[in-house]
Design goal:
Elements: H1 2-23, H2 47-57, H3 59-62, H4 77-80, H5 83-92, H6 106-117
Helix pairs in contact: 2-6, 5-6
InterPro entries: Cyt_c-like_dom, Cyt_c-like_dom_sf, Cyt_C_IC, Cytochrome_c550/c551-like
Protein name: Cytochrome c
Keywords: Electron transport, Heme, Iron, Metal-binding, Transport
């Protein structure tokens, strides 16, 4: 009895796979663009505070000399990414990085963003 049920389920799965291959899967939907662009204020950087935040939150993955480890190198992140993109990465995370919204204050995130944005 079990063999018969398993055979029927396997046959159904094979038919479903053939159907999907023949009639194509639906196209991926476009990701909605953010209607409110982020503008990172150009505030003076508190280097000591930014370094402290980096050491306690970022250094384990990005390295003590920004060389990268588990995360990418940040030595020239300001030349590779805009400040707005750096800000979004810190806030939302992604690609294995956790988001820091709620862990860091807005001022800390802006300060860290401006500091990293100066790495060119």
């Amino acid at each position: 009895m079990q063999k018969r049920v398993m055979s029927i389920m396997l046959g159904f799965a094979a038919l479903l796979a053939v159907f999907l291959l023949l009639f194509n899967l639906p196209e991926k939907e476009e990701v909605a663009q953010d209607s409110h662009p982020i503008v990172v204020p150009d505030t003076p950087v508190d280097i000591a505070s930014a370094e402290s935040i980096y050491k306690s939150n970022c250094m384990a993955c990005h390295g003590d000399e920004f060389q990268g480890a588990m995360g990418p190198a940040l030595k020239q992140v300001g030349a590779e990414m805009s400040k707005e993109r750096i800000y979004k990465q810190i806030v939302n995370g992604g690609g294995g990085m956790p988001g820091y919204e709620g862990r860091l204050t807005e001022e800390e995130i802006v300060n860290l963003t401006n500091w990293l944005g100066s790495f060119k």
